[in-house]
């Protein structure tokens, strides 16, 4: 033992300078950072590799299904991590870049500690939720991608391994009118693409049966219209296909309760946010009044945001948005918390294949995963070529890749087509 220990100590005390000399000296002046990074990865193990240091962070903003902010974290060894955050008002990118002060010079593999330093550094600036946490989320996902690339492992492996190889996706139909020509086109396509679940929206601000432009108490006419949309869709798809229905948290409690009861015959996968999530008691009241499963969570943040929802049994299914809930680690904690209440986890997801694949690693690593959203049916061309790996959904499932990190890389030629005009495209960084 002592001999081994000494040998181990000698190995560990190999200095960073000695190591860099062995790796980089023969190629000094020849290798750019990416090549140096490859050499470091090939000629070392994770135990004797020099510690990475974050050198910069940059952003690119795109508009597809809403605004998404892509994040890159750069290191002194050429490794670059990529992340994506979503649904944030203009200003997220500036917030991300403001996090430089917490990150430059730090070891990117201490993901949770870096996350906590940024979160606690903002508790007087809105770090309880919203845009601050959305911005932090994009950074956190980039750190996970980086960790996977540095350790040569897929993210799911770093999260304790996988419960499943394939992630079941549901198709959000993104329809204005589930009774018209759009539905005649989309419903057959969703089936032919192999999806086993789909979603429609039944809130409609333009419903002629609305008596007030501001108040969201649905009239009988509106409720009849909602039930007709659900019935028509349910009868147009195979009975084996699950149907979820979204009310977008717009209506009041009496409407939410009436609709949840009225759609009971259609055995929905869930009814989503019949009321806003801001009053958990009101959500719980609806849930306890109906047999229709209630789903909630796309606008809640971090584990603290889900605590009351779960404690009060206000939702049958939780749906954190992994691109704004706080990150991959945080989404996993929410899923684990939900599991203690025997509540399944069905992430909200409206982002590109990069964010979707990052979500897939979380979905693979928790036992109570139900189904994950896909929301780019109206942007299929962009979707299919957004990453160099091409289409990632096959017959309604995403296969979790074994490549290091997230496992997909942006195809910038496609992504730049969606760039928000006048915004930086990964500028102000130290890329070689
Ligand atoms: Mg929703």
The best one-word shape is globular
Bound molecules: magnesium ion
The helix tally amounts to: 17
Radius of gyration: 23 Å
Helix percentage: 25-40%
CATH architecture of the largest domain: Alpha-Beta Barrel
* CA distance, first residue to last residue: 45 Å
Largest sheet: 9 strands, mixed
The number of distinct β-strands equals: 12
CATH fold call of the largest domain: TIM Barrel
Which H/E pattern describes the elements? Answer: HHHEEEHHHHHEHEHEHEHEHEHHEHEEH
SS strand fraction: 5-15%
Low-confidence segments, given as residue ranges, are 1-30
Structural class determined from secondary elements: alpha/beta
Q: Let me know the average pLDDT.
A: 91
| CATH C-level of the largest domain | Alpha Beta
Query: What is the count of structural domains?
Result: 2
Query: What is the CATH H-level superfamily of the largest domain?
Result: Enolase-like C-terminal domain
Compact summary:
This protein is α/β, with parallel strands linked by helices and 432 residues long.
